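Illustration: Mannose-6-phosphate isomerase.
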Amino acid sequence: MASVKTLASAALTEGRGVFRLSPTWVPRSFLQPGRRLKLHPADYYALGTHRGGIDERWFGSTTEAANEGRAHDEGLSYCVAGGEKFLLRDAVEELGAEIVGEHIWSKYKKWPVYSKFFDNMGPIPHHMHQNAEQAKLVGQEGKPESYYFPPQLNNVGNNFPYTFMGFEPGTTKEQVVACLDRWNDGDNGILDLSKAYRLKVGTGWLIPPCILHAPGSLLTYEPQWGSDVFGMYQSMVEGRAVPRSLLTKDFPEEKHGDNTYLVDALDWEGNVNPNFKDSHYLEPIVASGSDKEGFIDRWIVYGRIKGAQDFTAKELTIQPGTKVTIKDGGAYGWITVQGEGSVNGLKLQTPSMIRFGQMTMDEVFVTAKAAKEGVTFENTGTDPLVGLRYFGPEAQPEAPEIGAWKK
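Result:
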């Protein structure tokens, strides 16, 4: 087999700066799949019931899934070209700035973000993701994340299309410590201190580290930092016990029994923010195009966390018969959610059903150089061609700020 560098260079030449990626499936042992990922009904437990059901598909990922009993490449995306396949992570290591851009390569020496479809039948436990300083204590990275609820994959809301976020203003740390003290008594009552927001298809949220959230049952597109750290603060969900190890796994071992420390790890002001929705809620904003031009490109994830633009995302809709060249500020991962067409001559097609292990034509990764020069999309079908794409840190300085959708 040729070297990854040779294979990757040949693939980029063939795709004019675009890699074709194969599907990356990730199970979670403590959750129930929502069955909207287009997997064949027989394949949601393809890795065995002991591993849990497949409820996530990861896009453009160089991040490993932090699952017990995981495969060596779980969570990692593969590029496919010329009958060969190789890890996107290895391609980035070999070609560096040619793929992710000079700014990202010089600062991170990797592709530091990824996105996923997150798909569950019901809600998941109230949890947070550690910030960079906290995660570093256990040799990992912190994780801000974001949500968008694509209409094409949310024909049904499943059991609980609401998400608890943060705490009601006036909640005290002592109340939350008491919840953790009651971990083995059944439901520890932490949701009694929170508020649920009804999830609206076609909108989204920006969630900084250390903010508690219990994602609901809409299928969610999630651009996020390249980390899989978390701490779950809810002891039971839908009548199922949550192991305390899922609360403590990404905190220093000597702090696992210190409930006050675990509560102090939360961004307290952020969690009790009386204007929580205004601070985090997103609605699409048109970036370019119009009905007359035959395409519309919309911002779906935008805003900064403590002054930093960690990631952004757009939704591109192209009408039948339209060809358009799109320029962007940096590399991106793309997933097609409707229709068929092409990107720089590579076919794009949305599958109606996927067998586990089957190759698809719906996902690509576009290099920074190609994105800046302009990528040509063409709709060759009869439906709109719709794709979601996410970008790395500081790639889109012109992106809107939180709340801009109101203007």
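Reading the tokens back as a structure: The first helix runs from residue 4 to 14.
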